Amino acid sequence: MLAIVALHGLAGWGLLQVAPVRAALAQAAPMMANLLAPPAPEPPPPPAPEPPRPASKKPPPPAPVIAAAPSPTPAPFVVPEAPPEPVPPAPPAPPEPVEPVVAAPPAPPAPPPPPKEIPPAAIQYLEPPSPSYPRLSRRLAESGLVVVRVFVDVDGLPRTVQVAQSSGFVRLDEAALEGVRRARFKPYAENGRPTAGWARIPIPFELEK
Fold this sequence. Notes:
Layout: H1 2-16, H2 19-28, E1 116-117, E2 125-127, H3 135-139, E3 144-152, E4 158-165, H4 170-181, E5 184-185, E6 188-190, E7 193-195, E8 197-205
Parallel strand pairs: 1-8
Antiparallel strand pairs: 2-5, 3-4, 3-8, 6-7
């Protein structure tokens, strides 16, 4: 049955596809009067909304510039001078050495008065000088006067003899000194007191004619 119904429906659809058949059916279709008030016409559909226009990109407002307070001009950098090196304190002066108190040495005794010069007239002998004439001096004919200066002590002894005047010949001078050394004098006295002093003794050397 289903197949029959389906075949009938398919046949009817095929007929409706033919234009004269559709026109005949339209003329034969009964007319129906609708006593009801016609329905109000449907309001026209609202117009389609316009597509949104692409919003023009506005440049972002510039960021507000906050004016900073002008910084003060930095003062020029000046290299500070190096502080002067501290002067080391002077070392304390060493204490002055305390010199030991030394007792002043006793005053030296007064120097003895210079020896007296015995005048020639005051010279007296206990043993007069007897110098020997050197043989070589005789042979060479050496002669002359030798003055011997002799220091006679309080006992009359010759302590120091020296040539005060040379004869010009060494042998004669040595012979005169040796002769005076062997002499003995009578002590010279002043105010009754023996006094030492220097005496000058002439010793001549003369060749025999």
